[in-house]
Amino acid sequence: MSEEAPDPLAEFRRANVEGTLCLARQAVEAGVRRFVFVSSIKVNGESTSPGRPYCAESTPEPMDPYGISKLEAEEGLRALAKETGLEVVIVRPPLVYGPGVKANFLSMMRWLSKGVPLPLGATCNSRSLVALDNLVDLIATCIEHPSAANQTFLVSDGEDLSTTELLRRMAFALGKSAWLLPVPVRLLEAGAGLLGKRALAQRLCGSLEVDISKTQELLNWSPPIGVDEALRRTAESFWKHQS
Q: What pLDDT digit, counting tens, does each position of 175-210 carry?
């Protein structure tokens, strides 16, 4: 979120590509049969158009060094799978939240907990998220399910939300009222541009939807907990660490 390396792509490649492939080769040498790699929806891109969610077969279009490095790791793992017979399963999550969440999600919880007015009462975007519990459940499924071998899966909570709706439901989980001002999105984006915060405005106002139908059908999988329960658990952890 605040990358300061002189060459971010080189650093991401060192961790996400070289580190991943080194571990995978050691797994092969140790006799491991299946390797589950948690990639990122950033491999697909940064945003979607209305009614056109990303699916597992969508053409990758990473836009930043992190996404590029995750795609290169995926490609390296697939090559290693062909070479060695290792079964590779790739999971691409969108934003992951839950107890201990950090970055922008934590900032929003802090604002809501303090009753700070937010200019996000008029967003009509749609974003897919995934609760940590749901992501872990899918990873556990991918470890053993015979149909998971050499497949790529997208994952989410199965319910997409606008930023406005997310904030309202997050506030409810926190036991607070959301003070959301209906500022037009174009005005927000213009202001963010002047402040050098275009990327933040995109995450708050833009859409990013994923289609998990392949995951559900091939693995007979559904998210075990809903958004409101996941937000409740996240809020509970938040308050615990505020005291």
A: 999 999 998 888 888 887 877 777 777 788 899 999
* Spatial separation of the C-alpha atoms in residues 183 and 164, rounded to whole Å: 11
Distance from C-alpha of 149 to C-alpha of 207, rounded to nearest angstrom: 30
Q: What is the pLDDT of residue 3?
A: 67
What distance in Å separates the CA atoms of residue 225 and residue 235, rounded to the nearest whole number?
Answer: 15
> With contact defined as beta carbons under 8 Å apart, do 88 and 81 qualify?
yes
How much is the pTM? 0.92
Q: What is d(CA 231, CA 166) in angstroms, rounded to the nearest whole number?
A: 9
In CATH, 8-242 is 3.40.50.720 = yes
Query: Tell me: the pLDDT tens digits for 143-163?
Result: 999 999 999 999 999 999 999
CA angle, corner 157, sides to 20 and 112, nearest 5?
100
**Domain-wise residue ranges, the chain:** 8-242
CA atoms within a 13 Å half-sphere pointing along the CA-CB vector of 58? 25
The Cα-based distances of 98 to 31, 129, 136, 159 in angstroms read 33, 11, 11, 16
Residues 6-42 have pLDDT tens digits of 888 999 999 999 999 999 999 999 999 999 999 999 9
* Catalytic annotation, residues: 66
